[in-house]
């Protein structure tokens, strides 16, 4: 566990005496260490530790403290066991299952029906309105374009023109959102879908949790979209927020992937931009 700071290691030694490393689940493109440990007191647990520039642990901890109860009470998300926000460290119980991404369940409509039902339950627990979401979204999109990327000059000009025309602010409803709702953050266990990874959780419009599925799984098989909407109960994308959400998502994907050196994922963002610009 050398990737952890001395403070993080000391906290784990106090919280989980006798713990043994089972597997390192860390993703090298982000500054979050994810470890599966076996402990005498809690059994299998997951440890998440943030690096110096990490900003996901704070959001993940907020999600655990404020929004995950609709899922944890039914075993569809892991319960928080220990946390220290200042140390960027948290421990949750381990959820059994296999990642849906790359599994046969990724092509099963029933997986998406369950995922839609889970998301509806998550979104329904709280709502509040803001009057400046369009401005926030435009600011976010322009901010991405100010960073280093390989989006063509012509596409950048077209994107800036579109962003400038996104309309005036008005009341927009925000709900708790997962922020990365897609098969790589779902587990399948004996046919049951569960949710993991809450480092992007925040209050946003409902449609933001549809963007990554619309870009990926919905486009390759319409049955998956139909099943998801059946589980969710309705389609919230019929609003003036849907296209701006997709545009911002595409720009962010292309820019972030370029910054971290993930060429294939960068191409996903560039292709989405080309598709949106027609």
Task: Give your account of this protein's structure.
A hairpin with a 3-residue loop joins strand 2 and strand 3. The protein has eleven helices and eleven strands. It has two domains: 6-95, Phosphorylase Kinase, domain 1 (2-Layer Sandwich); 99-277, Aminoglycoside phosphotransferase (APH), C-terminal lobe (Aminoglycoside 3'-phosphotransferase, Chain: A, domain 2), CATH 3.90.1200. The relative contact order is 0.13. The protein has helices at 6-15, 56-66, 69-72, 109-123, 133-146, 153-164, 211-215, 217-220, 222-232, 242-260, 263-277; strands spanning 20-24, 32-39, 43-50, 80-84, 89-93, 98-99, 128-130, 172-177, 186-189, 192-195, 202-204. The protein has 278 residues and is an alpha+beta fold. The radius of gyration is 19 Å and the shape is globular. 43% of the residues lie in helices and 19% in strands. Helix 4 (109-123) packs parallel to helix 9 (222-232), helix 5 packs antiparallel against helix 6 and helix 5 (133-146) packs parallel to helix 10.
């Amino acid at each position: 566990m050398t990737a952890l700071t001395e403070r993080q290691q000391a906290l784990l030694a106090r919280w989980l005496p006798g713990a043994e490393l089972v597997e390192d689940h860390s993703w090298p493109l982000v500054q979050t260490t994810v470890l599966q440990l076996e402990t005498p007191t809690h059994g299998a647990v997951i440890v998440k530790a943030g690096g110096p520039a990490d900003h996901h642990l704070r959001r993940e901890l907020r999600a655990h403290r404020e929004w995950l109860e609709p899922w944890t009470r039914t075993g569809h998300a892991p319960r928080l066991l220990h946390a220290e926000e200042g140390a960027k460290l948290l421990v949750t119980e381990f959820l059994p299952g296999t990642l849906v991404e790359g599994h046969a369940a990724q092509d099963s409509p029933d997986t998406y029906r369950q995922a839609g039902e889970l998301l509806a339950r998550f979104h329904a627990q709280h709502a509040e309105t803001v009057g400046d979401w369009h401005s926030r979204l435009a600011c976010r999109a322009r901010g991405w374009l100010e960073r280093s990327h390989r989006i063509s000059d012509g596409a950048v000009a077209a994107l800036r023109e579109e962003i400038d025309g996104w309309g005036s602010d008005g009341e927009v409803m925000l709900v708790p959102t997962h922020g990365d709702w897609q098969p790589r953050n779902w587990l399948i266990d004996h046919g049951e879908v569960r949710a993991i990874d809450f480092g992007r959780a925040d209050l946003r419009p409902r449609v933001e949790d549809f963007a990554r599925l619309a870009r990926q799984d919905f486009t390759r098989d319409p049955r998956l979209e139909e099943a998801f909407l059946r589980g969710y109960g309705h389609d919230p994308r019929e609003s003036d927020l849907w296209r701006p959400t997709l545009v911002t998502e595409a720009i962010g994907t292309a820019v972030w992937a370029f910054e971290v050196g993930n060429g294939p994922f960068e191409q996903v963002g560039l292709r989405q931009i080309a598709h949106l610009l027609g």
